[in-house]
Structures are given as C-alpha cells and as structure tokens.
Amino acid sequence: MSVDRDILAINARFTVETDYVGHGRHKVVVVDDFYAHPDRVLALALELPYTNRFEVIGNFPGVRASVNLDTTRVIDTIGELWGARLRPFFQPQPAVFQGIINQNFRLNIGQRQPHIDPDITAMVYLNPAESCAGGTGLYRHRLTGLERLPIRPDQTIRELADRLELSDEFLESEEGYENFQKSMIFNPLFSCRENTYINDGNEFWELIKLIDMKPNRLIIFDGRCFHSQYIRPEHYQTGFRINQIVYLSANSDRE
After folding, report:
1. Which of 3, 49, 84, 232 is the most exposed place for a label (fewest CB within 10 A)?
2. Where does 15-250 sit in CATH, by number?
3. Can you give the pLDDT at residue 117?
4. pLDDT for 44-57, tens place per residue?
5. What are phi and psi of 171, to 5 degrees?
6. Domain-by-domain residue ranges, the chain?
C-alpha cells in the first residue's frame, strides 16, 4: 500500500488540557485538533485489512489493523505532552488502528468491566463529529478504593493484602500477583450482568472520569488506571468506532 509520508503530520495549532483525576490525582492529557490531516488518517484506517485474531487483539472487543509508517514524531510529541520520554514496545512501531461495532456482538466477562494496559496509553479518536459518541471512562474499584494497579505490588497493595489477610505468596511472584488481581479486582462477579460495557459503573466500579470522544482528539493517560470504552448499546450499530492506539512505556522503572 502506498501512503503519503506526511499523513501523520501533526497540527501546529493543537490545544492541550491536563486534568488530574480521582483521589490519586492521575494525570490525563487531552489534545484537540492533533493531526494536520485527520480526514486522510481516517481514510487510511478505513482502507486497511482488519483482524479479530486473539494474538493480535487480545481481549479487545473489536478488530485491529496496522500499517508500517514512521511514527517517531507522533511518539516524541506524545512524550513531550506527557512530560517524560516515552518509548514504544516495538521497534519500529507501526501505526495501529482499532474498530468496535455493537451490532450482534457478545461481550465476555472481562470486556464488561474495566481493564488495565501495560504502561502509558495514548489514542486518537478518528470518527467524524456525526458519529462520535461516548468516550473513555476511568474508574475506581469500590471494594478496595483502588484507582490504579502498579506494575509490581507497592505499599498500598501490600497493606490491602494484609487487611484481607492474604498469604504473602500472592505478592511474592508475578503469577501470585496476577492471581491477586483476578480474584480481588477483576473478579467475574464484578462485571456488568447485562451484555454492555461498564459505562456509568455498577455496585463494584465507580466512574470517576469520562473523557468525551471528539474528532481528532488525542488522549494520554496512565494505562495502569482502571479504564474502559464508554459505549452505550445504541452506539455504533451500523459503523465502526475507530481510533489509533499507541501503547508506550516510560524509560524509568515505574511502580
């Protein structure tokens, strides 16, 4: 596929707003009018072949596609906006797009509650204004008060484990920490009972911030914070919710 080299050119006049969310004051950066040519980026995204293979999408409730483009400037700009040097998980890092459609789709248990990502998450909403709806929600786990899971157990997690009288084995290995998360945080009983995204929350999850979806809007946040797509059943019945996704990591060893 032949693609213009400047298709991911960044708008020189984007606007930036930074918010600090929840009790933990977790940073969220919202950038409007991010790309100089958003219509061309959307057109490219719509031309790509998408897949729902598990090894590509994991537990994402939709499809993904990628194209080999130079994303260096995009990643460097995201780092500048975040205030830290960030690195991609792959070298070179392709441009990755993802789509969700609600029609005749059955969400599994994990998709009906919030999730976490490896480190820093950035995405650009690409739908035109007439098909933008919902956005991205950030959540608090009501039973524990947690808003974020660190990469490795920190003092807050250890104090929580002590309060729950859990064995030290839960926090002394990677497997044990994963089991702690699955049983205490992402327990299937905490998911929405209906076939819907968590959206406004339930008795186990509290919505603490909704980042509205707008055309050509870049959002950057700590992917270790609990988050989910905010999509109501009536949204995206006939067309994709489409965005570009970038998973990044800070150079420093983060907790």
Report:
1. 49
2. 2.60.120
3. 96
4. 999 999 999 999 99
5. -115, 5
6. 15-250
